């Protein structure tokens, strides 16, 4: 059953306004804008209210603790904290392998960063801890400075340390520097930087990271000894080394990994199907880990089947240590993208749940919170912390309302580290690798976005593919740079080459649309409406002028090249030389026409009604008014103003009236400031709406409308044969005078 659209009518009776007449009838309020000094003074001013707001901003815990509902929320937070804690422990152990660190340090990352985020973070639902992409990026730095084979980098702080201790020092130093970058960005209020990472870019980047993670875990699943490789094409070299040794696969590791991946995958799917009926998701990772530990210990997998196990777990916590400055110098280039990616992922996930539960998050405060959390955690040997979507989903879906759930999960990690760590020592590393791989399902499924993006927006698809391929082949740090480059190029391309159009009036309305899209339109004779849907700046001003001439002078283009050649020094002595070229030759002479000509002797206004040779047939081009729709023009720079001024004068000097409509008031102010207006370009050319300008034009040329095609002015060009072409003289700014 189709339902008719409810339509209402409105009628407005008012004068036809130009910007000048509108300003006469309606007085504008001129506001005094604050100077930079005023903003600085206001920022540095302190009173009791600002001090209170500053404390509440820096310690968001005060805000949500004041409204905490103990009876309603506490039980949910406890249950959620236990569920999330179990997953955080397993993921901490597994993701430490991605960072090329001993598994026990993954438990540090599940504990220390959460302690500070509890007080400083604005999100009530994200689970702070290890994230596979960050772990892999940190691992790339670790393997570069402390490779599996060969000597480590020449760093003084490495003296007297074992390989594991050297790697822990590198990971904690990189994390410390990452925290400094995040804290600095938060203090400088640059949380907006995350907007440059579009959803498409993040999707392509995380998909590439999933491919890297998958390849990095194959050596554990297959039980092979493959050295860590970093840098461009590292994934290719890693796969090469894996396939060279494929015949040495440890069958016990492979079978155990396949069984665990199958079981975890099936139970996770059941969790999704029955999530409405289950009070908490089944902690299948924990169950399989406990079973694998028991079986490995009972059957002595390490000695009987040569299975690599977790081994000695660090019991308790070590004293804090200072980061290594030499590692800072070696890893600064990698630490910055790690800081950006960590914040972008955490902020995106936090934003989803803040909208769902109706509270606000502060991007700058999140940067401060994660910066301090990573600095604090790195002092105690943890590695890069952010959030993982799977952990956060469990924390929210199992009843978590605040970060009390996160604090409880951190306490569980502490209990395992202090008292129960020895129980995990017989756990095969292939089990951790299998858990990492099976949790990549969500990221790997993002490959399905390619056909969707290709159908909807091919430019976005190009960003996705460029980011993904760049990150896979060049590494995650360089891949992020490539993705940002491709993304910015698409923005430049879209603004430099916008889709310009010629508009027409929809019959019986004051609406104007692209003339190619509608059948019932009204186009007055001699009037063209041109629209450019983008800012006009130095990079697209020539494109704008070319498209303008092409759009409004289609009747000129297929006829002749028109060349004006001055003869003599007198201003009134002008010879009009009409040169005919064939279509094939016309484009070859384009450069010749573009050469500057000294036309200072030309009159200020061209008279196209002058007498021409008797053997030349010169019809009119029916254009007396040109309307430029600036409703989508958000800014003009100095170069664009100069180019626009030249283009307008070209039309004015061939007796075409030009009008600019719907121009932003700040652009008009800037035009005044830059001395844009003169004796030819007047403020009366500007109209508040397109319909006002059209009504003004129709009123001005109503006699022309009554008399058919007789126009008060026009552009002339010659016509003799269909196989010749013409070039509209207004396309050449230097063909009239020096503006």
From TrEMBL:
It is a multi-pass membrane protein. Pfam families: STAS, Sulfate_transp. The keyword Lipid metabolism does not apply. Keywords: Membrane, Transmembrane, Transmembrane helix. It is found in: Membrane. Residues 517-697 form the STAS domain. GO terms for cellular component: membrane. SUPFAM superfamilies: SpoIIaa-like (SSF52091). The keyword Cell inner membrane does not apply. InterPro entries: S04_transporter_CS, SLC26A/SulP_dom, SLC26A/SulP_fam, STAS_dom, STAS_dom_sf. GO terms for molecular function: secondary active sulfate transmembrane transporter activity. The chain crosses the membrane at residues 74-99, 105-121, 128-147, 167-197, 209-230, 242-266, 278-299, 335-355, 367-384, 404-424, 462-489. This is STAS domain-containing protein. The lineage of its organism: Eukaryota, Metazoa, Chordata, Craniata, Vertebrata.
